[in-house]
User: Which sequence fits this backbone?
């Protein structure tokens, strides 16, 4: 089945790529192999779901795999901009790759729409008129978690994140909103898989709660080991360790954990209901927040293309900024620095039949804009 | 002890915490030993640098996750990991690795790197891009209370015990059995043992499959508390190479001592260095500098060992 599906996918992509006289060319660089491939696959599948549903033959999408390596992302970007002459780029998952590609791309008059990474520099000092972030600024989900911790009367958090820029953004975001004491603050190794040492420190710290940002496999390892350790303090995290792709691998260890996200499959609007059903019908799995971000990115592009030619850059930019599309998140608008102003929800991990998933239990932050917008002079 | 006494002022650190971290270091070391044992045997006996050893670790974890998913039995899952990794190892040895023994190390590195890519994408093809579920069995889950009031996960204790039992078995195999004699002879002089009538190609396949099975077992054991995903073997592979370089290439005893040294250094360094730096600077930068230095610590250890003993702690006169 998997093979058939990927063949079908490949055919679909190449048909699009062969479409004659495509007027708009979109280059997608994302992670399709190696450790973080699940995220890139979801962004791509969500994006292509919207593009194919639009049924337009004047749009060509070129998809390439960056293998999570900044150097290959830069090479692919150069090729896409200089020889393929793409008009719009998107797809990058990781902040360090985005920092390597986005400033160069936007400086060469290419539009870049981020479906995931939102490094703080690109929201503030180095914001650019051709750069739009459709997902969130990196700090946002962590800020909502800090706000939730206050609401839940947590007073003594132990916080940990990997020792790299997005990890530091994460803890900064949490501390920006969180009003209690810190029982401890640890930076772990990026890619670390064993957290026995950290869990022992949590146990000894006298904390009343744990906040962690450990995306992908790191989070799976942490949660399983935490559940097995006998430490039973409440855990809060951003959606990245509780998305649909990895919840099944964590299993019951994640049940009941509160996490923050700008999207969930139970947000009640027509666009979201249709998205969840179509995604499941086409790919045979529930969509993750990454898939929802890819889907929204594609629909934003489509909505702008309905109003303006991409070659008419000023009109197209204005159409993107207006963001008149049906977001699966419900209301969606851009701030002046082209980053979303949106609600961020608190979700709880639940079990539906034998599938682990999330349900929204509260709104963490309403109409939340990022903290760097004031540094952006556009 | 200075460190401990001094840190007391800021963050109290109990003896219990230190003992728990020592256990964590032991458990990590034992897991590294399972990886490094196969790697050092293959390097010692066949003179082969096998970068694909981490791929066999991944094969073991995926086989265990698949079988645990079908049958619900963790014991069957462990047996499947041994069988699948050994079979994959034997297959690869017969089809690819066998052609590399006479080549130089660069060719071996290139070919086994290609094997990593083939195994990774092959696994993705079979199982998809998303991590698989493999959990600790219920009879090994949860913490136990050790003497002295240390609460420690039972499963990690089980890993330590399994690792030590497997280690003892390996020593017995190498020191007391006919195959062990052949393996030791192969390390000492490859041509001579062939001339003496030992079926060297069968021996090579056997050693390779044995190493692969150990890696597969490590993958399955660790998969239950970490994430079973494509590419999980490569970070461990790097550590396993550090272990065999410290221990001395070809030496099982060296692999055991090296693995425990690396495990303890990495775990204890990661915990205590940030606290040590916290005495000298503000907490945030101490945490980040301490964490950075802690991740370099095992490489500093390796460099120090190589300065004193260039062929590793238990290495021959290579």
Assistant:
């Amino acid at each position: 089945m998997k093979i058939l599906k990927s063949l079908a996918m490949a055919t679909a992509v190449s048909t699009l790529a062969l479409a004659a006289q495509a007027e708009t060319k979109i280059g997608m660089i994302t992670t399709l192999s190696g450790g973080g491939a699940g995220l890139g696959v979801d962004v791509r599948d969500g994006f292509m779901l919207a593009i194919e549903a639009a049924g337009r033959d004047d749009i060509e999408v070129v998809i390439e795999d960056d293998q999570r390596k900044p150097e290959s992302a830069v090479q692919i970007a150069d090729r896409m901009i200089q020889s393929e002459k793409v008009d719009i780029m998107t797809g990058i998952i990781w902040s360090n790759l985005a920092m390597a590609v986005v400033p160069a791309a936007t400086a060469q008059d290419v539009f870049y729409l981020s479906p995931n990474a939102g490094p703080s520099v690109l929201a503030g000092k180095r914001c650019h008129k051709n750069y739009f972030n459709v997902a969130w600024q990196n700090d946002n989900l962590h800020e909502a978690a800090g706000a939730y911790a206050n609401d839940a009367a947590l007073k003594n958090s132990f916080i940990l994140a990997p020792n790299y820029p997005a990890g530091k953004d994460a803890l900064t975001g949490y501390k920006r909103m969180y009003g209690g004491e810190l029982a401890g603050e640890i930076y772990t190794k990026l890619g670390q898989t064993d957290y026995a040492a950290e869990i022992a420190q949590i146990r000894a710290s006298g904390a009343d709660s744990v906040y962690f940002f450990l995306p992908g496999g790191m989070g799976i390892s942490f949660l399983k080991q935490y559940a097995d350790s006998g430490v039973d303090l409440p855990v809060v995290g951003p959606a990245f360790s509780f998305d649909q792709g990895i919840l099944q691998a964590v299993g019951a260890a994640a049940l009941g954990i509160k996490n923050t996200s700008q999207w969930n499959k139970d947000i009640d609007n027509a666009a979201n209901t249709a998205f969840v059903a179509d995604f499941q019908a086409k790919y045979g799995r529930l969509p993750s927040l990454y898939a929802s971000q890819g889907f929204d990115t594609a629909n934003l592009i489509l909505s702008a293309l309905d109003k303006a030619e991409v070659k008419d850059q000023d009109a197209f930019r204005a159409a993107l900024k207006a963001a008149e599309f049906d977001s699966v998140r419900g209301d969606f608008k851009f701030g002046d620095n082209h980053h979303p102003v949106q609600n961020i929800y608190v979700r709880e991990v639940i079990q539906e039949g034998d599938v682990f998933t999330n349900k929204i239990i509260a709104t963490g932050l309403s109409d939340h804009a990022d903290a760097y917008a004031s540094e952006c002079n556009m | 002890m200075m460190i401990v006494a001094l840190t007391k002022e800021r963050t109290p650190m109990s003896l219990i915490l230190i003992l728990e971290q020592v256990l964590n270091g032991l458990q990590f070391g034992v897991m590294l030993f399972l990886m490094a044992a196969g790697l050092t045997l293959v390097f010692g006996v066949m003179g082969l640098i096998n970068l694909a050893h981490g791929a066999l670790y991944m094969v073991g974890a995926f086989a265990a996750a698949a079988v645990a998913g079908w049958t619900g039995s963790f014991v069957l899952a462990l047996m499947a990991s041994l069988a699948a990794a050994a079979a994959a190892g034997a297959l690869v040895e017969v089809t690819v690795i066998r052609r590399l023994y006479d080549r130089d190390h660069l060719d071996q590195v290139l070919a086994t790197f290609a094997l990593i890519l083939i195994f990774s994408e092959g696994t993705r093809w079979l199982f998809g891009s998303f991590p698989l579920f493999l959990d600790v069995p219920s009879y090994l889950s949860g913490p136990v209370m050790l003497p002295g009031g240390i609460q420690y996960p039972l499963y990690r204790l089980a890993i330590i015990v399994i690792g030590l039992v497997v280690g003892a078995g390996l020593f017995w195999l190498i020191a007391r059995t006919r195959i062990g004699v052949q393996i030791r002879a192969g390390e000492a002089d490859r041509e001579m043992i062939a001339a003496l009538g030992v079926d060297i190609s069968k021996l090579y396949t056997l050693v390779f499959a044995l190493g692969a099975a150990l890696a597969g077992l490590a993958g399955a054991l660790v998969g239950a508390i970490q994430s079973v995903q494509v590419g999980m073997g490569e970070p461990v592979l790097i550590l396993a190479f550090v272990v065999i370089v410290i221990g001395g290439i070809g030496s099982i005893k060296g692999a055991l001592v090296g693995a425990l040294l690396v495990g303890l250094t990495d775990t204890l360094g990661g915990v205590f260095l940030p606290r040590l730096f916290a005495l000298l600077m503000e907490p945030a930068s101490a945490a980040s500098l301490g964490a950075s230095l802690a991740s370099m610590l095992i490489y500093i250890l390796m460099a120090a060992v190589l300065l004193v003993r260039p062929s590793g702690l238990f290495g021959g006169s290579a």
Strands of chain B lie at 143-146, 150-153. The first helix of chain B runs from residue 2 to 7. Chain B has one domain: 23-128+144-308.
